[in-house]
Specification:
Elements lengths: L1 H31 L5 H19 L5 H20 L4 H17 L3
Length: about 100
């Protein structure tokens, strides 16, 4: 019992450390690497999405975290491919909300 509690505490501490490292890498990538190619932009989107996923796990349940992370990844990917478009963003948000209602609890 005590060993399981120790492992969970260690994983929570390591998640915070990984989050700080990822945020540092994201800031360094934004500061030093120009987003000239699609692969660099996609790597930045995925890095920021992982950071958001780790942050959301502290505040929301697993279902809400997955839905918000999916919305964030799709939103940034569409903005990378097409550019910001309000109508597409609202359609994406409504689609994600409809899917979230269909997922059983």
């Amino acid at each position: 019992m005590k060993r399981t509690r120790h492992i969970r505490h260690h994983l929570a501490d390591s998640k915070i450390g990984v989050l700080f490292i990822l945020v540092g890498v994201a800031f360094a990538m934004l500061w030093f690497v120009p987003p000239t190619t699609f692969l660099i932009q996609l790597a930045g989107v995925l890095l920021i999405a992982i950071c958001v996923l780790l942050i959301l796990t502290y505040f929301f349940s697993l279902r809400t975290t997955a839905i918000l992370s999916l919305f964030f990844v799709l939103f940034l990917t569409l903005n990378t491919l097409v550019g910001f478009d309000l109508i597409n963003t609202l359609l994406l948000f409504s689609f994600i909300m409809a899917v979230s209602r269909l997922i059983p609890r």
